[in-house]
């Protein structure tokens, strides 16, 4: 078994990381009860989903650490949950503005700046798009497609993997791993772009709701769960992370990624409890809110 193959420091590390995962789950359960009691029903489920991101990723990483053969399934589970959370974060920003109708009234003459990351941060020549029901629909579609298509692609990957056709190390054009990974990457960039466009517009209005720390926590989850894991996986595939018998380079890279994620998600869970637990003031009516500098202003 796995525990029999570990030395004393290894067992101690596994025990500490497991304890951190359990504490993260308990902190989230306590926070979910608080949100259920104190937050209006219109925002309740969205905020619970967003707060669940870190403990869910920590739990899947812990399971993958103890049961190495389940790594593919745990990574896919975390990936599906993460895709849903991105859509939920966009919807939370709209809800915090008072809903779609109130948001359209607040920014009646405003425009979205689409030259933002991660897709078009260097394309400053792009026009600013009017804020209308149609543009809001496209932004919501940008995150919704990720929440729908990523689980479909992950399910397809599992089916191909069980049949022996999907091999993560095989990135040749003839294999499905390269094409599925590239397609998921493109969908991810589109979803993150939609969230970035919305955040850039509402960050001043929602400053009283602490939207900047909330967005920072969301960005940390994105970077640590996606970018960090991908970089470690590349290092392991290229043998930059040396093997340590009985672990191969890839298995050792997977262990490193999972252990880092458990510690990082534990910290994010604790910080999220502080950020989302504060009591915030309600926004002023739309007629009293000034537009951002550069937007057209209209006298009420």
TrEMBL record:
Keywords: Membrane, Transmembrane, Transmembrane helix. GO terms for cellular component: membrane. The keyword ATP-binding does not apply. It is found in: Membrane. It is a multi-pass membrane protein. PANTHER family: ORGANIC SOLUTE TRANSPORTER-RELATED. This is OSTA protein. It comes from Illadopsis cleaveri (blackcap illadopsis).
């Amino acid at each position: 078994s796995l525990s029999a193959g570990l030395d004393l420091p290894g067992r101690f590390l596994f025990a500490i990381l497991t304890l951190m995962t359990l504490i993260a789950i308990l902190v989230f359960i306590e926070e979910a009860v608080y949100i259920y009691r104190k937050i209006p029903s219109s925002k309740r489920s969205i905020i619970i989903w967003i707060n669940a991101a870190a403990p869910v990723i920590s739990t899947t990483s812990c399971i993958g650490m103890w049961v190495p053969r389940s790594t593919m399934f745990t990574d896919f589970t975390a990936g599906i949950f993460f895709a849903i959370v991105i859509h939920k974060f966009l919807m939370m920003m709209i809800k915090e503005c008072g809903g779609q109708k109130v948001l359209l009234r607040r920014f009646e003459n405003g425009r979205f700046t689409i030259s933002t990351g991660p897709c078009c941060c260097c394309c400053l020549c792009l026009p600013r798009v009017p804020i209308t029901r149609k543009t809001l629909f496209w932004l919501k579609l940008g995150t919704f497609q990720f929440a729908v298509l990523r689980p479909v692609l992950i399910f397809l990957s599992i089916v191909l993997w069980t049949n022996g056709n999907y091999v993560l190390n095989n990135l040749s054009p003839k294999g499905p791993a390269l094409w599925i990974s590239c397609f998921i990457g493109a969908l991810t960039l589109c979803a993150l772009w939609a969230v970035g466009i919305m955040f850039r517009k509402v960050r001043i209005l929602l400053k009283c709701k602490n939207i900047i720390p909330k967005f920072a926590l969301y960005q940390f989850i994105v970077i640590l769960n996606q970018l960090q894991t991908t970089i470690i996986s590349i290092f392991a595939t290229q043998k930059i992370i040396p093997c340590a018998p009985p672990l191969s380079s890839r298995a050792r890279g997977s262990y490193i990624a999972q252990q880092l994620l458990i510690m990082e998600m534990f910290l994010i869970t604790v910080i999220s409890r502080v950020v989302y637990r504060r009591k915030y003031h309600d926004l002023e009516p739309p007629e009293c809110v000034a537009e951002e500098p550069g937007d057209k202003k209209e006298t009420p």
